[in-house]
């Protein structure tokens, strides 16, 4: 009788091993895909899409506006949207550029404000005339707002 130091290994070991191998291959793919889908489904723009969220955000905004001042970029956005309606998008873009030059802390919000101006310009002037006001303020974000509102 001959005995080996190493026990004999069998190839396979039945259905449990096959299931384990399958899970080892499939599970990482499923996790990556589900994580990607989760990230893609989040509304990163900050504007609520659901009426339930809108109602909750509206009541929270009302409460917070009573307790704290509005953010400077929100005040500037509202002022520029009024300027766009009173005069034209060119005047609003000039004021945006001046505000960013005067307060560099507003630079991180420049692109979103310019996009908002572009979308509002389409509503007020139509896509063709709104596009005629486009210029390189905040990396052409005004023009991308025009395109977004038109598409």
What distinguishing features does this structure have?
7 helices, 151 residues, mainly alpha
Helix content: over 70%
Continuous helix count: 7
Major beta-sheet overview:
none
Principal-axis shape: elongated
Total E-strand runs:
0
Mean pLDDT: 77
Give the helices and strands as they follow along the chain: HHHHHHH
Structural class: mainly alpha
Low-pLDDT sequence parts? 50-61, 63-67
Query: Radius of gyration, rounded?
Result: 28 Å
Which percent range describes the beta-strand content? under 5%
Measure the end-to-end span. 83 Å
Give your account of this protein's structure.
By secondary structure, the chain is an all-alpha fold. 72% of the residues lie in helices and 0% in strands. The protein has 7 helices and no strands. Helix 4 packs antiparallel against helix 5. It is elongated, with a radius of gyration of 28 Å. The N and C termini lie far apart (83 Å).
């Amino acid at each position: 009788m001959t005995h080996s130091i190493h026990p004999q290994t069998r190839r396979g070991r039945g259905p449990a091993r096959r299931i384990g191998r399958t899970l080892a291959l499939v599970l990482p793919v499923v996790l990556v895909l589900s994580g990607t889908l989760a990230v893609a489904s989040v509304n990163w723009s900050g504007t609520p899409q659901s009426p339930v969220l809108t109602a909750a955000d509206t009541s929270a905004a009302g409460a917070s506006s009573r307790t704290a001042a509005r953010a400077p970029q929100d005040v500037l956005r509202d002022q520029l949207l009024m300027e766009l309606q009173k005069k034209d998008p060119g005047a609003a873009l000039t004021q945006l550029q001046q505000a960013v030059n005067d307060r560099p802390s507003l630079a991180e919000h420049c692109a979103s404000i310019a996009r908002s101006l572009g979308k509002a310009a389409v509503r007020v002037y139509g896509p063709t005339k709104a596009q005629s006001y486009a210029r390189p303020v905040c990396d052409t974000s005004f023009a991308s707002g025009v395109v977004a509102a038109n598409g």
